[in-house]
Design the sequence.
């Protein structure tokens, strides 16, 4: 039609210059072809199974070992010589996995490291948790990590963990995941009586000591045929607690004192699900930070040959400051790679100086419902790819390692050369708060490190949301980095 601009009409100088000079992210569903999108969706099916089978760091570590061994990885032995292409792993205390593919070059040429964590916020039991109050049995708890306590009220919870009995026997516990299993919950106050609760701010409306797990209400009953039934049962107190302990004793062979040497946690009793009419999103508990743990492990197992040795670390205790011997502050990573240097007869110091690392952790995706806490020019958006974060920390970059410009440029080139969709972001507005990752602990070894991860909605909630495109791009980014 007359006056209508032809599609073949040449672009103006301004349009050409704008395309050349302006920074613009790419939206995954508008950029990727149908085949690549299907590949991303298929990849997320395996990811969802990993989430469902690994709701605690112990379970995630166990699932990781299964994946590694299915792909030919073997347990690492200190002092043993390994050849290029060998796949090895170290299982530290059942909660921390380090996996490596030995490269063609000696490790003094540097190693490529991806470090994620597999612990997530949850509700832990206290060491003396079981009690009865007015005909109801409860567990006392101590929450783990940074949670909004009110989000954990009135949702179905499953009990996961391990109990080590006095004779040393270890008993695994996983109750509440099957359809026929009972679930547990934390009760809340009815709105009709919540006048005082409504007047409190969200941080104080639910006290930590009130996060008690409802276990049951049925009292213990003795033998129906006992002649002394009424007489003996009148002397028994805390009958509901006794009934619960009796059931636990029959099922697991434990007594109340065995809780002292147990690690038991309550996690949401829900499966990973597709979210939205278009199924473009994954909703699940524990995506922080298993969404950054599963993709690099899969990338490592699928990479059979590398120039530089590649190491994937899945650490524990990140949500509570990375303390302890299964955390990133543990020396186990250092022991592993230093033993590789010693095996090859090369300098440890040169190895660290030439090494590069992606600190793989999630970032906050922009949520239009809470737009006022984000700075949109420097925010991450769902479906725009993995999030490269130059610095984390809070306010004045406190607690951040702040990656060097040269290293950012190096990572950008790797991603661009391998068609990885990526974006850059900060964690909200400068004065809103912030957070940290394991990057600083790796940087302390004189290793170049930058944060990279998947943007998610509702971080630290019992049900977090991530984009399938972004999850798959974490895999593509990991694969490209491992081979670099």
Sequence:
């Amino acid at each position: 039609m007359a006056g209508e601009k032809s599609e073949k009409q040449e672009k103006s100088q301004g349009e050409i210059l704008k395309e050349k000079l302006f920074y613009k992210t790419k939206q995954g569903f508008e950029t990727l072809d149908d085949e690549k999108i299907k590949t991303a969706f298929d990849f997320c099916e395996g990811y969802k199974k990993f989430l469902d089978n690994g709701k605690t760091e112990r379970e995630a570590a166990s699932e990781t070992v299964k994946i590694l061994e299915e792909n030919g990885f073997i347990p690492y032995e200190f002092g043993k010589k390994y050849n290029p292409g060998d796949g090895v792993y170290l299982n530290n205390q059942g909660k921390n996995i380090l996996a490596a593919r030995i490269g063609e070059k000696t490790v003094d040429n540097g190693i490529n490291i991806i470090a994620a964590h597999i612990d997530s916020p949850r509700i832990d039991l206290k060491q003396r948790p079981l009690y009865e109050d007015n005909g109801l049995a409860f567990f006392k708890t101590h929450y783990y990590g940074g949670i909004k306590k009110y989000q954990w009220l009135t949702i179905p919870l499953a009990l996961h963990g391990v109990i080590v009995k006095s004779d040393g026997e270890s008993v695994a516990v996983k109750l509440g995941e099957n359809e026929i299993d009972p679930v547990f919950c934390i009760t809340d106050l009815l709105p009709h009586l919540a006048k005082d609760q409504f007047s409190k701010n969200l941080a104080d409306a639910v006290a930590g000591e009130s996060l008690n797990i409802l276990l049951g209400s049925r009292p213990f009953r003795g033998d129906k045929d006992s002649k002394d039934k009424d007489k003996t049962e009148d002397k028994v107190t805390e009958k509901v607690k006794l009934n619960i302990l009796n059931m636990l004793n029959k099922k697991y062979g434990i007594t109340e004192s065995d809780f002292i040497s147990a690690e038991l946690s309550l996690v949401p009793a829900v499966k990973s699900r597709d979210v939205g009419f278009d199924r473009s999103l994954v909703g699940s508990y524990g995506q922080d930070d298993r969404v950054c743990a599963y993709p690099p492990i899969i990338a490592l197992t699928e990479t059979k040959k590398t120039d530089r040795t590649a190491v994937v670390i899945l650490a524990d205790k990140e949500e509570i400051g990375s303390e302890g011997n299964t955390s990133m502050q543990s020396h186990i990573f250092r022991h592993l790679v230093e033993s590789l240097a010693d095996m090859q007869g090369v300098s440890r110091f040169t190895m660290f100086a030439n090494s590069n690392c992606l600190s793989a952790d999630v970032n906050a995706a922009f949520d239009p419902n809470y737009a006022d806490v984000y700075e949109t020019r420097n925010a991450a958006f769902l479906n725009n790819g993995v999030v490269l974060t130059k610095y984390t920390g809070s306010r004045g970059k406190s607690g951040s390692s702040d990656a060097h410009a040269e290293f950012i440029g190096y990572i950008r080139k790797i991603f661009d050369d391998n068609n990885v969709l990526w974006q850059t972001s900060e964690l909200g507005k400068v004065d809103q708060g912030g957070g940290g990752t394991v990057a600083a602990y790796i940087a302390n070894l004189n290793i170049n490190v930058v944060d990279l991860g998947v943007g998610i909605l509702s971080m630290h909630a019992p049900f977090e949301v991530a984009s399938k495109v972004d999850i798959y791009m974490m895999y593509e980014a990991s694969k490209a980095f491992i081979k670099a």
